Amino acid sequence: MVWPFPPKSRKQIARIEITGAIASETRKTVLKALKEVEEKKFPALLLRIDSPGGTVGDSQEIYEALKKLQKKVKIVASFGNISASGGVYISMGAQHIVSNPGTITGSIGVILRGNNLERLLEKVGVSFKVIKSGPYKDILSFDRQLTSEEERILQDLIDVSYGQFVKTIADARGLEVDAVKAFADGRIFSGEQAKELGTVDRLGTEEDARIWAAELAGLDPEKAECNTIEEPKSFVNRLLNRSQGRSPIGNTLNWVEFELATAGQPLWLFRP
Hints:
Helix content is 39%, strand content 17%. By secondary structure, it is of the alpha/beta class.
């Protein structure tokens, strides 16, 4: 027997909130949440982003999952205080984007950083003996300067990643690649400027984005509630009922942990 009444989720808007640096844990929890959106057949998704960006591969996987979900769900992204670099990239997986006028966004580009402690190590009398299988196996080693050939190799890597970023924005927003490159030089800009550049559709609040998502899905904006998909609460919090408020996705790493985990990796990341 087929149940005659549609599930409650058919009349609700799924909501996923992504905060903080985008890393592997963010990817895992977001992909799990997107699968839940698809399985429960939510007609619309409100994607709230408050992130300075993060790792390249994780951002790309979230974007690809959102792009796939577009075939079944209306997706509206809403920018919070900051949606920069990788935050911009994952928003390209939404059909529509709403930003606050004062949101910090942009920072479209790639950065790779290494630390050179050679002079410090010399002062304390520490040196390293390296046995390697190839001349570039210890590239970005902290105990020596980069060679000119190593700089070229890394610059080529950055340029390829940058090209992927620019093309994704151009394709998603219906812009020419050269037009995107004109402002994709690492600069940050406000939500108002982003609208002028064509990387967001409307200026407004998260509530404005919710109403738009409801309208796109054919729901009554006055009645369509948001169902926030949260990370699972710990057993202790559930047992003691001490968990307060929502549990946004992506804030599990502090900055020290993030820096250590991503040392030497290309990043789509803005940090003032």
